[in-house]
Amino acid sequence: MDFKSREAYEKMIEEAYKVIPETGYKQVSARFNPPTVRIFYQGKNKTVILNFKEIAEYLNRDPNMMRKFLSLELAAPSSPSNGRLILHTRVDETTLQNTINYFIKRYVRCPVCGGYDTTLKKIGKNFLMKCEICGAESPTPPIK
Ligand SMILES: [Zn+2]
Predict the structure, then answer these.
(1) Which protein residues have a CB closer than 5 Å to ligand 1 (ion)?
(2) pLDDT tens for each residue of 68-78
(3) For position 69, which CATH number holds?
(4) Residue 61 falls within a domain, yes or no?
(5) Distance 26 CA to ligand 1 centre (A)
């Protein structure tokens, strides 16, 4: 690479960084702070999510949809109980938090702008995610 094209290349990189709305993204991330999962174990094979309702409300998602997702991902039946969720398996806090984070990544976070101000619309078996920030509509995988 000669000096001239290298200079052009660096300038291009510089320009590219200017285009990325870094501060906007940071503000969104700072505002988005869902409650950390709180659990306790009931007997040997049950895990109770104490703040399940709180998390679903924060994410603005149907608790039943979230329940189905968790059941599917953790391969365990579940039953709602007064704002709590009982998973019929023993799962540690980290795994559970990671599964919820995965749900957020798939069904809450806008894949276009990275914002979390989204709503889900059910179309048949699929969901369409509508972003309130950038207006993008993105299809999301169905929960079977
Ligand atoms: Zn968006």
Answers:
(1) 110, 112-113, 115, 131, 133-134, 136
(2) 999 999 999 99
(3) 3.30.30.170
(4) yes
(5) 14
